[in-house]
Design goal:
The protein has 83 residues and is mainly alpha-helical. The chain has helices at 2-16, 50-62, 71-79, and strands spanning 22-25, 38-41. α1 crosses α2 and α1 (2-16) runs parallel beside α3. The chain is globular and about 35 Å long.
Length: 83
């Protein structure tokens, strides 16, 4: 379910961003946790792995803790107009 949340957020970003956002498979660096996985490429930003972010967001919730960031803040950060 957490991975689905990340993919849903990515889908919203792809539809709402007013700049080019594309999917790609991360090939470098090989030591990256998202190596060989699909990531979003945002302009002037590092690759974003929405599935990993969904899992990172859900883990504290499952443990009964507050997440360190909200879905709204992630969405706003990803869709913010880049200078």
């Amino acid at each position: 379910m957490a991975a689905d949340w990340g993919l849903m957020l990515a889908s919203l970003v792809l539809g709402d961003a007013d700049f080019a956002v594309t999917w790609d498979v991360l090939r470098k660096p090989k030591r990256d946790a998202s190596y060989n996985l699909p990531v979003l490429l945002l302009p002037t930003s590092f690759p974003v792995d929405p599935v990993a972010i969904g899992i990172a967001h859900a883990t504290p919730i499952i443990r009964g803790q507050e997440p360190r960031f909200s879905a709204v803040s992630a969405y706003e950060a990803w869709t913010a107009k880049r200078a």
